[in-house]
Design a protein that fits this description.
Layout: H1 4-64, H2 71-79, H3 83-93, H4 96-118, H5 136-163
Length: about 170
């Protein structure tokens, strides 16, 4: 009996199945990578939105009422956008430069919250301190740190999202 035909058929079948499995594995890995990129992009957008909205609400509180702002109202504004949960989520899925920048921005915004909750700050209609008013220097410092932290965060996010394209 000639074994070459069945052996050749078996080898051909193994090569065919192997190449199909390899192709599927590569496709699946690429698809998972694409899904992770999309997840990160959506998460980054939600986090930036939450930071910006919370900043706006905190400034609005400081403009509308005398500072220090009531603790209950501060907590309501702070918790309204799930910042801490989003920060933890970023720590899980983002690369370290983005996670570190996200945490820095979170801490800078929290410092602003603490400032308007403990210090007399006279903010004008645009959220800027009145010249020479109480707490102007403290507000300027805290707000500048936040603005710089947000810029660094956006830059890190952009670098991460851009690195996934290709």
């Amino acid at each position: 009996m000639d074994w070459t035909t069945p052996v050749s058929t078996l080898i051909g079948a193994m090569v065919g199945v192997g190449s199909t499995l390899l192709g599927e594995t590569v496709r699946s890995k690429r698809e998972r990578g694409h899904q992770l990129d999309q997840l990160r992009q959506q998460l980054y957008a939600r986090y930036l939105e939450a930071l910006t909205s919370t900043d706006g609400e905190l400034q609005l509180l400081a403009v509308r009422q005398r500072t220090p702002v009531d603790e209950v109202e501060l907590r309501a504004a702070w918790r309204g956008h799930s910042l801490l949960a989003l920060n933890y989520e970023i720590a899980l899925v983002a690369p370290p430069p983005v996670a570190d920048a996200a945490d820095t921005a979170y801490r800078a915004l929290r410092a602003m919250r603490n400032l308007i909750g403990t210090t007399e700050v006279s903010l004008g209609r645009r959220g800027a301190p009145e010249d020479g008013g109480p707490g102007a220097a403290e507000w300027d410092g805290a707000h500048r740190e936040y603005i710089e932290a947000i810029a660094a965060l956006r830059s890190a996010m952009r670098a991460d999202v851009g690195s996934g394209r290709g």
